[in-house]
Design goal:
Keywords: FAD, Flavoprotein. This protein has 19 helices and 23 strands. Strand 12 and strand 13 form a beta hairpin.
């Protein structure tokens, strides 16, 4: 369909963004043949693109305009002035098309926190059925299960008929066998299935891979493609949303009549009969709202946008997971990604193995991860009273930044950290080295540029206290917004990640990982020369190491937060934008508080629940009606 033909029709629902959440919404709403849905996607259709399908080819997608928005943050004082490149999917399926395929689960308290912030119906038990709804879990063969130690998984908690496939894919690697054993020898207990609400331990994590075809399982493949032929579902790719057309007759909520978009430089408007649903993600969703006149008057006026809805929470509360990467040399007999990257002939053979046989190293996505509690990380000799330590750093920050936490998030996070079943950090162990000096260019981060084989031990935050913002600086939709994640602007984040880094480094002296590592003449693990650092031993040394060796974990959330309006919120618990009659946001930007681990699973669950909310309103006749308190 041409842009002209697309815009010549009106639709019940217009979805801005054909990414992870947008395609779930579109697929579920069009189950009703009487409902029409239009999707506007800024990127192209990458279905059957081998680079997307290959589970372990994701690094080849970053920084390429065909797949990636290639956002950049402003320089970050907390990471010694570095700019950070944010790979976000600009292709049908969004970031589910370009991510690591790692499949985590929010903890019980993560989601129950959402309820405490004023969102009834969004707790752990409320969302658990939606995790099962979108998922088809494929158990491993017995021989594989034994090698990777997947007995922690509880099959009764897993979905069996959902669109998204999850499994352990590819041949078992030496790291997948080594990692769980090392965690157990480090004093961790056997993990329980994260679906129980807690995930403390080191284990192999599931991946979003369809084992029947050995290809990525993602929103475009498994939500859109099976339903693409529905006559009530329309998709337009390479269509950049420029604004929501809003009508405000005074006295009531603004009503969306349609969406303006750009194709090949020409502007069009598509009419929405019932609702506009914004699914652009944590960067593009606040940008779309602000371009439409929804946001802080100070931000909008400076950018030359007329104010339609005064909603200062738009673009605020940006919260991201940080990843402190520790590259460690391993012996040559333990092959890592460097073995492929440095040998064009071997790389070509691996590509051909995947293209022709769906086999080889590009089938297996990363699995080796885990979660550690503050109880594990904090040494009693250093921190005899964890509670008073947290309170001291929280108090000092709140005094320096009064009114920075109107929703009361910090108190919930501090309480959560004191629970030994809750994680202070995610530990990631990747079979590749990293070039942490390339924080601004994700495609240059992996693998290592230095000789030899390398792994990364990553200390990743779970719920950062630091909060930044995403705001437009121009009325032009083609200008990227200003992204400031404010990494380590809260002293507690730096303190906790420094302690976690010291804890993670203790794994280097635990078998069997210990014997895998290369050592210098003093017996210390070998770091890359480019790190320009030695193994930190004190807390202050660890803080300096963290600031110099931290990048994003690509999990931004919160910029259209589901929080009461008077506390800085943007959407209510039905995901409707305050001050509008018929605009919703459905994606990670609505997360009112961050959760542990990789977030794609929660985006699917949130979108599934959102679809049910919209359907229920549709059937009751409440859709798009009236204002809210």
């Amino acid at each position: 369909m041409s842009a002209k033909d697309f815009a010549s029709k009106s639709y019940d629902y217009v979805v801005c963004g054909g990414g992870t959440a947008g395609l779930v919404i579109a697929a579920r709403l069009t189950e009703d043949p009487n409902i029409t849905v239009a999707i506007l996607e800024a990127g192209g259709n990458g279905l059957d693109d081998i680079m997307i399908d290959g589970p372990n080819l994701f690094t080849q997608l970053w920084d390429k305009p065909q797949y990636d928005w290639s956002f950049k943050t402003v320089p970050q004082e907390g990471t010694v002035g570095k700019v950070h490149g944010w790979a976000r999917g600009k292709v049908l399926g969004g970031s589910s098309a370009i991510n690591y395929n790692m499949f985590s689960m929010a903890s019980r308290q993560d989601l129950d926190n959402w309820v405490e912030l004023g969102n009834k119906g969004w707790g752990f038990d409320d969302l658990a059925p939606y995790y099962r709804k979108f998922e088809t879990y494929h158990p491993s063969e017995e021989t594989v299960a034994e090698k990777i130690n997947d007995k922690y998984l509880d099959k009764s908690l897993r979905g069996t008929s959902g669109p998204i496939h999850v499994c352990f894919s590819g041949d078992v690697t030496w790291l997948q066998e080594t990692w769980p054993k090392t965690a157990l020898n480090a004093g961790y207990e056997e993990s329980s299935d994260p679906r129980t609400g807690s995930a403390i331990g080191g284990f192999n994590q599931l991946t979003t891979v369809d084992p029947k075809h050995n290809r990525r399982s993602y929103a475009a493949r498994d939500y859109y493609e099976p339903n693409a032929g529905r006559p009530n579902l329309s998709l337009l790719t390479h269509a950049l949303v420029s604004k929501i057309e809003l009508e405000n007759t005074g006295g009531g909520d603004a009503r969306a009549s349609g969406v303006q978009f750009i194709v090949d430089g020409d502007k069009y408007t598509v009419k929405a009969n019932k609702e506009v649903i914004v699914c652009g993600g944590s960067v593009n969703s606040p940008q779309i709202l602000e371009l439409s006149g929804i946001g802080s008057p100070a931000i909008l006026e400076k950018a030359g946008v007329d104010v339609v809805v005064d909603l200062p929470g738009v673009g605020e509360n940006l919260n991201d997971h940080t990843a402190t990467g520790i590259s460690l040399g391993v012996k040559d007999e333990y092959p890592t990604a460097e073995a492929l990257a440095r040998n064009p002939e071997v790389m070509q053979q691996a590509l051909e193995a995947y293209i022709k046989h769906k086999a080889g190293p590009f089938v297996g996505a990363p699995t080796t991860t885990g979660f550690t509690s503050l109880e594990k990380v904090a040494q009693p000799s250093d921190l005899p009273n964890l509670s008073s330590h947290l309170e001291s750093l929280l108090s000092s920050h709140s005094k320096a930044h009064p009114n920075s936490d109107p929703a009361g998030r910090d108190a919930l996070l501090a309480r959560q950290l004191l629970n030994p079943k809750e994680a202070v950090a995610q530990i990631v162990n990747l079979p590749t080295g990293a070039n942490m000096q390339h924080s601004d260019t994700p495609s240059k981060l992996l693998p290592s540029e230095e000789d030899g084989m390398w792994i990364v031990l990553g200390a990743c935050s779970t719920r950062s206290f630091s909060r930044g913002s995403v705001h437009i600086a121009s009325s032009s939709p083609t200008t990227h917004p200003r992204i400031d994640p404010a990494y380590f602007s809260h002293p507690l984040d730096l303190d906790l990640m420094a302690r976690t880094t010291l804890h993670v480094l203790s794994f280097t002296e635990v078998e069997p990982l210990k014997s895998v590592l290369r050592r210098d003449t003093h017996g210390a693990p070998v770091l890359p020369k480019s790190a320009n650092a030695t193994i930190p031993k004190t807390l202050e040394e660890a803080k300096a190491f963290v600031q110099a060796n931290t990048v994003t974990e690509y999990h931004p959330v919160g910029t259209c937060a589901m929080v009461p309006r008077e506390k800085g919120g943007v959407v209510d618990s039905a995901l409707r934008v305050y001050g509008t009659a018929n605009v919703r946001v459905v994606d990670a930007s609505v997360f009112p508080l961050h959760v542990q681990g990789n977030i794609v699973s929660l985006v699917y669950a949130v979108a599934e629940k959102a679809a049910d909310i919209i359907k229920a309103e549709q059937s009751s006749g409440a859709n798009g009606v009236g204002g809210r308190q």
